[in-house]
Amino acid sequence: MGKKLTVLFLSSLMVMLATCSKDKVKTAAEYWDLGRESFNNRKYAESIDYYQKLVKRFPEDTLAIRAFFSVAEIYKNNLKDYQKSIETYKQIIAQYPDDPKTPNASFMIGYIYANDLKDLEKARTSYEEFMKNYPDHMLVSSAKWEIENLGKSLDEIPQLQKITKGKE
Among 50, 89, 97, 126, which has the minimal tally of Cβ within 10 Å of its Cβ? Predict the structure, then answer.
């Protein structure tokens, strides 16, 4: 009977310790480092999880918006989940409306609609909204160029004809 209680007690203690030590992360920088490490090891879901925890637990830290952008980029570039990338960029705009990096999130929404999802109407609307909200931003000229060339193939764009002709 005594051995059974001891084994039960030790088992319970081990479970408690494992649960408590699971998330020893104390700072935004630690979450950032874990997110980068996971990303570098191609563990994208794990990386997203660390970045999202950083944003949730340390929303005012300067690393939070960087983590948010990293989540959006992983969804776009690595997981090819364009809708989740757009949703993440929209969350950045809502949560950090005054951050100097926020206009980039707005631009990227149009970019994804245009270049990844090929939804030209949503791309146009998104780019126009970007230009309306951030008329002095350095990406306005890029948004205008994107709108002018929506739906065109590379060989239909005069500025790119030299490049496409060189490949033939």
Answer: 97
Cβ atoms of 46 and 38 closer than 8 Å: yes
In terms of domains, do 33 and 60 share one? yes
Q: What is the pLDDT of residues 46-56, one digit of tens each?
A: 999 999 999 99
Q: Which domain holds residue 73?
A: 27-85
Cβ-proximal residues to 120 (8 Å cutoff; 6+ apart), any chain: 113, 114, 150, 151
- CATH code of the domain containing 77: 1.25.40.10
Q: What is the pLDDT of residue 19?
A: 44
Q: What is residue 36's predicted lDDT score, i.e. its pLDDT? A: 98
Q: Between 168 and 86, where is the model more confident?
A: 86
- pTM given for the model: 0.81
Other Cβ atoms within 10 Å of 109 Cβ, number: 25
Q: DSSP state, 43?
A: -
DSSP letter for each residue of 76-93: IIIS--HHHHHHHHHHHH
Burial class (CB in 10 A: 0-12, 13-18, 19+), 58: middle
For residue 153, what pLDDT band results from cuts at 50, 70 and 90? confident
Structural domain tally of the chain?
A: 2
> Does residue 115 belong to any structural domain of this protein?
yes
